[in-house]
Amino acid sequence: MTETPEARPIKGVHHGAFRCRDAEQTRWFYEDVLGLVTEGGVVLDEVPGTGADDPYLHIFFRMTNGEYIAFFDAPASADPEWFQRKESFDMHWAFEVESEEALLAMQARINSFGVSALGPIDHHFVRSIYMYDPNGIQVELTCRTADHDAIFAKEKAEFADVLARWSERTRAAKLEKFGAEAIAKRGRAPARA
């Protein structure tokens, strides 16, 4: 696909959002512990689009690049089980810091708040530390290594073959576990001019 603004219209993340158990507890972690800026929040009594009666606070935190993470504090519809720790394959944030020195400084800062930040783990393209937020979501802070871009360039060049081999290797297990309809491609390709 052509690399034009029309072909690739998404310029970045405005926000990713999840539930939180308690807005103040979440504010403490993301603002006090991690140092993000609380941009504010809005209280609404109905769910937009459905009109369902479910009062909630939608709170936003800004990162230095202008992107946000956000949370919904909606106690009436919350399931306490959702706040159990999630496996990292199921859900995690990975936030980037500028350097290895910044990563180690953040690890010391986080630990000083009594939050365990483990690592750093060397993933070759990044080095990372890990912790959990108060909502059971794993949070990773990461910094790029000197080889980051070269590793991604190599992976991009090989990806079509890697994906084809992976799909062939896992197709039977996925068909058995999920069924053909669940893993079928959706929609249709756009018409070509």
* Straight-line distance between termini: 13 Å
* pLDDT averaged over residues: 92
Overall CATH architecture of the largest domain: Roll
The CATH class designation of the largest domain is Alpha Beta
- Radius of gyration using CA atoms only: 20 Å
What is the subunit organization of this protein? single chain
CATH superfamily annotation of the largest domain = 2,3-Dihydroxybiphenyl 1,2-Dioxygenase, domain 1
Number of strands: 8
From N to C, what is the helix and strand string? EHEEEEHEEEHH
The CATH topology of the largest domain corresponds to 2,3-Dihydroxybiphenyl 1,2-Dioxygenase, domain 1
Structural class: alpha/beta
Pfam families: Glyoxalase
Domain VOC: 12-144
InterPro entries: Glyas_Bleomycin-R_OHBP_Dase (IPR029068), Glyas_Fos-R_dOase_dom (IPR004360), GlyoxalaseI/FosfomycinResist (IPR050383), VOC_core (IPR037523)
Protein name: VOC family protein
